[in-house]
Structures are given as structure tokens and as C-alpha cells.
Specification:
The complex is a heterodimer of chains A (336) and B (569). Chain A has helices spanning 2-29, 44-53, 60-84, 105-140, 145-159, 162-176, 193-230, 233-240, 245-273, 277-283, 288-297, 301-329. Chain A has 336 residues and is mainly α. In chain B, the strands form five sheets. In chain B, strands 1, 7, 8, 9, 10, 11, 12, 16, 17, 18 and 19 form an eleven-stranded mixed beta sheet that branches. A three-stranded antiparallel beta sheet of chain B has the order 4-6-5, with helices on one face. The chains are: A mainly alpha (336), B alpha+beta (569). Chains A and B meet through helix 2, helix 4, helix 6 and helix 11 of A and helix 5, helix 6 and helix 13 of B.
Chain lengths: 336, 569
């Protein structure tokens, strides 16, 4: 298992390099321009100067190599410096700078990460916690009223897009009932009970929207996987041995059913980091998803490049974790 | 009983007095909550060029003079406006002198001097800096200090209209001490300074989260001890225009939402909640349809819309251009898409009032389908079997492009229907705004390349003087592959008469005469059909009912007088 993991990690390096090149080339080929959103009163000569100051007058390969150097050498050194207080060289390194804000991309990401982890992460967690019991009951009592309602809700949750449910929730709970705020206040600091309540209130709507979506998806997996196992021979054997029904269901069937579910959950973790682009935009949560979408709209290529690449790294990493987990959970599977 | 009455009356009087006093006290009105649906990326307008950044930074940094809500220049950090009469502008028009207010302090307590003004010019003109407002300093040869509170600007050639450097929200003064190590290529590296510039304005930046939220607090060193009325501002960004309008008008979570350009019927239903109001103001924005004077036939490939492609087979016929203009009913377009924030216009220079022509309003403002049909009949464009007019095998069928935007797409549909009534067909297309306005020479969809017969967008000019703007229709400003598709003469209009008249304008200093010439130039463009002006667009913003002191301004930053904003008592 260990050598397998090492081998996979080693293969990840060329994979990620190819991905980074593909992202860079795609963004370069895309017909967008960082000066495109500026007022037309800014004359073309000035636009040309702005583009030159962003380094856009240099050839493609030079820009790509510069980004590689900034991302793989300069930024890690900077992080190391700020963590340890050591100084490498003169400390004057070119960092990956966002074009729109002209500030280091990594600082922006660090600023945005907590909100995304809180809102999207919590929604993922709630989604899982909701999905597993619903899936188990749905499968055990297949075609019962509970199963029918569960299936209906998860179908609705899965097929209705979040930009619809989000706005619907705002109209109902913010505009009409006025229970929850429609705009996320990122300056709110949790210091006492009332600010904690305020934080919970402003997180309620986005978390609810995303939890519904996540739960719908995972419920279907849990239900399907439970159904597969419920008809297996070992279940009949356990029942014949006189094992209690509760134990059969929760120990024998559930444990075996969770093997593919855990993989699905692990594969979904990177999407927590990439944020919920649409939901964050709807509720104005300043997370990574919103950062990405504003960067795309403003043709802020270094920011888009860095963010998408970090997501790519996470996806490669969690694919590996899912495979390893699979091997640990299911003793029948051996990679070596 | 009488005593009690007197006592009561006294109490009431006291309460009334204290509340009117509170009016004149800095920070008495608490927090002001602003919502921009496009988030602010930086507080340095010299590094961004975007309107939202110019607006946000105008809370902190200020110019020497700015435009008021009527479009008149008012001195701001200067004691008076330099003019020919008061000797502030030299007779030869080669220099001007600004006198700075002597008692102005930066928010850090240091004195505001001529050095800061000079530094601002150096900052924006430093090589490799990519200053987004460089055009404001165009033609400036030197800026020098006569004494610590007098600045002299020298121009390279006579400037009949010199109010551009250090004037308006695009050209504010930054502090020399803070930015001294940020010249040229080093500018983007000064993140702390770019995110929280030291200013002379009513507020200072307390916290800046890029593309998200900016927090301001009242400037303790502001020159008017009684202002601002608000103690702090939080400026949140992101989302979209309808939800921003909703947060002010319907849920009342915010006090002010900038640029709430939403379909009138949606706004109407939000206003019903009674929590706020809409205010509009008009600057120089005109939504127009450009008519391509060159052939844009796709069969021509890369030669499309260039001189080599030759004149447009149908749009060069004055009768066709006039008929297309006559067929359009501007009232319907305004009603459907713009509401309070639009007015029908036939001018490309719609404001200020002194330069707004009314000459063509008689024939152009109202639609005249019959007249248009007759014009085309007489010119020999006759309807074919499909109802589309044609002459010598050339059909009046046009490719009509614009940027992606729900109001623009609705307008496209309306115009298409109006043109259908005179036997003209239109194929509608739209491109994402960042591509359409992006100017990437490799993309075929930019508005500069104009690979279409007609295209629609909005443009405007800064300030109140239209000379530079009218110069965009000069023959040598036509975009072409030779100049990398740069040049603002998008309709490819070329008339030596126009060029001559514009030359005259650039030599005239007398304001009356300038206005007259500008009107003539504007009329020429409408009459000859360089384009079809559609809607004079205004700015529309939403304000909470409790907010007072607002003077909506389209000539400068919309929040130019934020020091005077307060809560209704």
C-alpha cells in the first residue's frame, strides 16, 4: 500500500504539470481582456500600456515559465518565511499578482478560505449527516411512503439548480418573513452569544441551500448501495444465525454499503474548496467560488490560473485518498 | 397644570434642539451601509480605471476641482477655479495655476501641499506603471510648485479646455509620502498603500477586503469639523443588480445600492415595499446603433469592415441610413428597458445642456414608418417576395450585434420588429461584454472589429467638454489591421468637412463658440447617419428612505458629496 501511494504521488507530478499547462494555454486562448471591462473613455493607447504593465506583451512561454517559478518556488518560499521567520535571499521575490486587485493571489485565497470552509464545508457535513439515515431507511423500507417522499425530495433537490432555490429562499425568508439576512456580512466577528446567533442566521440560508443539494446526491448513493447489499447472501446468513435485525442492518449491511459511499464523499471534498460558485454569488459570501467567478468575469488570469490549479491539485490528491481509503475499508482490494 | 405644560414644552424644545445639534456633529448618524453589485478591487483608481474603483476611492481621496450635480466645475481642494478672467489660465493657453486650500490636512495629520499634487502627476506618468488614468494627464509637460500652496501646470501645446489633470473622480491627489516608493513598475507591489490610501476626504479606510467589503471611518482630520454625519461606512460588493436593489428597496438591509440598472417593472414591484426610493441623474451616456460604412460580408474574411472591403453595399446609401433611423420608436425602447434612467435622444452629445442640440429632434425623435417606407421606395429598394427590400440583388438584411445584457437583448428584439415594418431584416447576435469590449485583436467578436452591419452599445465622455469625444469620428481614427484595430471611429465614418470643423474646435477657446461648434459637429453625425442615437442613459441608484443630503451626479463620482449625507431626523 505504501509503495503504491508513493508511486501514485510520483505520477501526480507530470499529471499536474500537464494540467497547469493546459489551464494556462486555455486561458491564453480565451478571447477575454483584462481591460475589457474598463470604461470606453479610457483610450486604446492607455489600454495598451496597462496590458504591458501586466506583462501581457511578453510571449506565451515566458509568461508560463514565470508563473511556474512564481507559483512553485516564490510562493512556497514566502509561506516558509512567514511561518518560520527565516530569510531566503533578499526576500524580494515576484509573487503571483492578481490583475484586478494588484495584490498577491495567495493572500486573497487565504482571506477567502475560512468562509468557504465554514459555509460550504458545513453544508457538506450536514448533507452527509442527513443523507445517510434517509438513505438507510429509504432502502430498508423500499417503496414505503417514507421512501417515496425521500425520493421525491432528493430528486427535487438534485434537479432544481441552486440559483433558483437560493433566490427562492431569499424571497421567502428574507423579503417576506425577514427571518434571515440576504447578504452575508463578512466583517462579522463572533465574540459573544448575540454575534454567534447573527453568524448562524446569516449562514442558515446558504448552508440550507447547499445541504439540500448535497444530501439529495448522497442519499441516492446510500440508498442504492444499501439495496445492493440487502439482498446479499451474507445478510440472509446473518438473519438465519438469529442476529438481531438492528445489528444486521446497522453493522453488517451499513458497513458494507458505506464502502462506495465513502469514496464518493472523498471525491466530493475538493468541491468544498472550489466553493459553491453560484450559491456564494447569490448570498454574497466572499468565498473561493465567488473569488473565482469575479476573476473569470474580470479576465484576472493569474488568479483564475492559480485557483483552478489549486483545485486540480486537490482533485488529484483526493482521488488518491479515495483509492487508498477503498483499499483500507475493503480488505478484498489490494493494490500491490 | 400650567407648570407641567411649560415643563413639557421645554422638554420638547430641548429634544428638538438636541436633535438639530446632532445634525451638525461628526459621526452622529452611525453606520452607512452601501452595496455595490460589482465589488471593489482596489482603492487606487490609477491602477484600475474601473468606475467602481473611482467611486469607492472618491470617499477617501479628492481632486483639486470636481463637477457638481449640474455638471459645473467647483473648486474642491483648490481655493478657486483657474479661469482666463482671474488669470489662472495663461493668455497663450500654455499653462494654468491652481491655488490650494491652505488648511487641508491628510488623514494622518500631515499637511497637504503642492508636492503631493506634483507627485500625483509623476506617479501616473511614470514609465511601466500602466497608469489607467494616463489620458487625464495627456499633454501635460510639467507640473511645478510656485510655493507650497500654488501649483503651475505647463502644457505641451495650447489647451483651450485645460480642466482634466487633477479634476474629477478619475484624477484625485494621492499622498507623496505614502506612495514615494511605488513609482512605475513598483506600483502594484505597494499593496498596503493601494488598499488604504491616505486621503483628504471625509473618510479613511479602516479595513479592505479585495473584491468583497471595504470599511471606512470618519476622517479625524477632515477640514470641516462638523462633517461627515456618519461615523463609518461599510461598502459591500458582489452579486447582481436586481438583488442589490432588493436589499435596499425591499428588505431594507442597505442604505444605498449603486447602479441598479434593472428592468423598470421589477423595480416598480420592489418600490411597493416603501423602504426606499430611486434617484437618477443624466451624464453623457448614449446608447447608439453604429452603422457600418464598410462592407462586413463574411465572405470577405479578414478584409471585413476595412477599407479594402470597400463601401457597404446598402448602408452607404443615405436613404437606407435615414430610413433605419426613422423606423425606430425610441419611446417604446425607453419604456421597456430603461424607465426613469433613460430618455429618447437624437444626439451623440446629449449633455450638458449648453451643448445639447435640438436641431434634429423634429424629424428624428418620433418614429415615421410611412416616411421611411416612402424613402426606401423612392430610392429603389423594393420589397421582394419575402417582404425584405432589395435592390440590384442586395437585400436589406443586417447582422446586428451587441454585448450580452438582458436590456440590450430586449432592445435588439424591439428594433428588429420596428425594422421589419419597413421591410428590413435583422439577424441578432450578442457577445459577452468582456469579449465584445475586450479589444483582443485575435477575436472576431470585438466591437472595434465590427464584423457586423450594425452594432449597439453605450459610450460617453468624461467631464463636460466634448472635443476629445467628437475627435473619435475623425477619418484617421478608423480601426484597421494596420493600427491593431485601435481607434475609436467604430462606424468608419469619414467626412473631410467634419475633420475641418473639428480642427476649428480644437483651436477655439471661447466657450460660447466651442459649444456652437460642438452642436454643429453633433448634428452632422446624426444627419449623415454615422450612427443612430437611441437613448440618453442616466445613472440609477437606490437609496433608503431615511437617507438625506444626496445629490446624484453623473459628471463625477456619484458619492462626491458623501460628507453631506445624513439621516433624516
Amino acid at each position: 500500500m505504501f509503495t503504491y501511494t508513493l508511486r501514485r504521488l510520483f505520477f501526480a507530478i507530470p499529471t499536474l504539470l500537464v494540467i497547469s499547462f493546459a489551464i494556462f494555454a486555455l486561458l491564453d486562448l480565451a478571447p477575454s481582456d483584462p481591460t475589457g471591462n474598463l470604461p470606453l473613455t479610457i483610450p486604446p493607447e492607455v489600454r495598451e500600456q496597462i496590458r504591458a504593465s501586466l506583462g501581457l506583451d511578453q510571449p506565451f512561454f515566458i509568461r508560463y515559465l514565470k508563473w511556474l517559478q512564481q507559483f512553485f518556488i516564490n510562493e512556497p518560499l514566502n509561506i516558509l518565511e512567514s511561518l518560520t521567520g527565516w530569510q531566503f535571499g533578499d526576500g524580494e521575490r515576484m509573487r503571483v499578482l492578481s490583475w484586478a486587485t494588484r495584490s498577491p493571489v495567495v493572500d486573497l485565497i487565504v482571506q477567502r478560505l475560512p468562509q468557504t470552509l465554514w459555509v460550504v464545508g458545513l453544508a457538506y457535513l450536514f448533507g452527509i449527516l442527513l443523507a445517510i439515515p434517509i438513505g438507510v431507511i429509504s432502502a430498508y423500507k423500499q417503496y414505503s411512503i417514507f421512501d417515496q417522499i425521500g425520493t421525491f425530495i432528493s430528486m427535487v433537490g438534485y434537479s432544481v439548480p441552486t440559483f433558483f432555490t437560493g433566490v427562492l429562499m431569499i424571497v421567502i425568508f428574507s423579503s417576506h418573513l425577514q427571518w434571515f439576512p440576504s447578504v452575508y456580512d463578512t466583517n462579522l466577528e463572533v465574540t459573544d452569544f448575540s454575534s454567534l446567533m447573527a453568524q448562524m442566521r446569516q449562514m442558515a440560508l446558504p448552508v440550507a441551500v447547499l445541504a439540500l443539494y448535497n444530501a439529495s446526491q448522497i442519499t441516492r448513493f446510500v440508498r442504492a448501495s444499501m439495496l445492493d447489499n440487502l439482498h446479499q447472501d451474507y445478510v440472509r446468513t446473518a438473519r438465519a444465525k438469529g442476529v438481531k435485525e438492528k445489528t444486521v442492518l446497522l453493522v453488517h449491511v451499513l458497513r458494507n454499503s458505506l464502502i462506495p459511499v465513502v469514496t464518493v464523499i472523498a471525491l466530493g471534498v475538493p468541491t468544498i474548496f472550489s466553493g459553491a460558485i453560484i450559491t456564494e454569488q447569490v448570498f454574497r459570501v466572499n468565498g473561493l467560488g465567488q473569488l473565482l467567478i469575479t476573476a473569470v468575469q474580470g479576465a484576472d488570469i493569474p488568479l483564475v490560473q492559480t485557483l483552478t490549479f489549486i483545485f486540480a491539485v486537490l482533485i488529484v490528491l483526493f482521488n488518491l485518498i479515495a483509492d487508498v481509503l477503498y483499499g483500507i475499508l475493503d480488505p478484498r482490494i489490494r493494490y500491490d | 397644570m400650567k407648570k407641567l405644560n411649560i415643563l413639557l414644552a421645554g422638554t420638547v424644545a430641548c429634544v428638538a434642539l438636541s436633535s438639530s445639534l446632532a445634525h451638525a456633529e461628526r459621526g452622529a448618524d452611525g453606520d452607512l451601509k452601501i452595496l455595490f453589485w460589482q465589488a471593489v478591487s482596489t482603492m487606487n483608481p490609477y491602477l484600475s480605471g474601473g468606475t467602481k474603483e473611482a467611486l469607492a476611492s472618491s470617499i477617501v481621496i479628492e481632486p483639486l476641482a470636481r463637477y457638481n450635480e449640474k455638471g459645473e466645475l467647483v473648486p474642491w481642494l483648490a481655493t478657486e477655479l483657474p479661469t482666463h478672467e482671474n488669470g489662472g489660465i495663461a493668455q497663450d493657453m500654455l499653462s494654468m495655476t491652481w491655488k490650494l486650500k491652505p488648511d487641508v490636512k491628510w488623514s494622518d495629520g500631515s499637511a497637504f501641499t503642492a508636492e503631493d499634487v506634483i507627485f500625483t502627476w509623476k506617479y501616473c506618468t511614470a514609465p511601466d506603471g500602466g497608469c489607467a488614468q494616463a489620458a487625464q494627464y495627456e499633454g501635460v509637460k510639467n507640473v511645478e510648485a510656485i510655493d507650497p500652496h500654488t501649483v503651475k501646470i505647463t502644457f505641451e501645446e495650447p489647451k483651450p479646455y485645460p480642466y482634466s489633470a487633477f479634476v474629477g473622480a478619475q484624477s484625485p491627489i494621492i499622498q507623496a509620502a505614502q506612495f514615494k516608493d511605488c513609482l512605475g513598475a513598483k506600483a502594484p507591489g505597494c499593496t498596503a498603500a493601494n488598499f488604504a490610501p491616505v486621503g483628504t476626504g471625509a473618510f479613511v479606510v479602516k479595513d479592505f477586503k479585495a473584491n468583497d467589503v471595504v470599511t471606512f471611518e470618519a476622517n479625524p482630520n477632515y477640514r470641516d469639523a462638523a462633517k461627515p454625519a456618519f461615523a463609518s461606512i461599510s461598502l459591500k460588493g458582489g452579486g447582481d443588480a436586481p438583488s442589490a436593489a432588493r436589499a435596499v428597496l425591499e428588505t431594507g438591509e442597505y442604505d444605498y445600492a449603486w447602479n441598479t440598472m434593472v428592468e423598470p417593472e421589477i423595480l416598480e414591484s420592489m418600490l411597493a415595499a416603501g423602504k426606499g426610493r430611486l434617484e437618477s441623474s443624466f451624464g453623457t451616456q448614449v446608447e447608439r446603433i453604429n452603422l457600418n460604412h464598410y462592407n462586413a460580408d463574411p465572405a470577405l474574411g479578414d478584409k471585413r469592415s476595412t477599407k479594402e472591403a470597400g463601401p457597404h453595399p446598402s448602408l452607404t446609401d443615405p436613404a437606407v441610413r435615414r430610413a433605419l433611423a426613422l423606423a425606430i420608436d425610441r419611446d417604446i425602447i425607453v419604456e421597456a428597458g430603461f424607465g426613469e434612467a433613460g430618455r429618447p435622444t437624437c444626439n451623440i452629445v446629449p449633455a450638458p445642456e449648453v451643448v445639447a442640440s435640438t436641431k434634429n429632434d423634429s424629424w428624428c425623435l418620433a418614429s415615421d414608418i410611412e416616411g421611411a417606407n416612402k424613402l426606401l421606395d423612392d430610392a429603389g429598394w423594393l420589397p421582394g417576395p419575402d417582404g425584405i427590400r432589395a435592390k440590384d440583388g442586395v437585400r436589406l438584411s443586417f447582422l446586428y450585434t451587441t454585448s450580452t445584457n438582458s436590456v440590450r437583448q430586449a432592445t435588439q428584439e424591439l428594433v428588429k420588429a420596428m425594422w421589419a415594418e419597413i421591410g428590413v431584416d435583422a439577424e441578432l447576435r450578442n457577445a459577452s461584454a468582456s469579449v465584445f469590449f475586450g479589444g483582443d485583436p485575435a477575436s472576431p467578436d470585438t466591437f472595434q472589429k465590427f464584423y457586423a452591419d450594425v452594432e449597439m452599445y453605450t459610450n460617453n465622455f468624461d467631464g463636460t467638454d466634448p472635443e476629445k469625444y467628437l475627435a473619435e469620428w475623425l477619418c484617421d481614427k478608423v480601426p484597421s489591421p494596420e493600427n491593431g484595430w485601435q481607434g475609436q471611429n467604430i462606424p468608419r465614418y469619414c467626412n473631410p468637412e467634419f475633420d475641418k470643423l473639428l480642427g476649428e474646435l480644437s483651436k477655439t477657446a471661447d466657450i460660447e463658440k466651442r459649444n456652437e461648434l460642438a452642436k454643429q459637429l453633433n448634428d452632422m453625425l446624426t444627419e449623415e447617419g454615422a450612427h443612430i442615437p437611441l437613448v440618453h442613459r442616466g445613472d440609477l441608484s437606490a437609496f433608503a428612505a431615511s437617507l438625506d443630503g444626496i445629490l446624484m451626479n453623473s459628471w463625477d463620482s456619484q458619492i462626491w458629496n458623501i460628507a453631506d449625507w445624513h439621516r433624516k431626523k
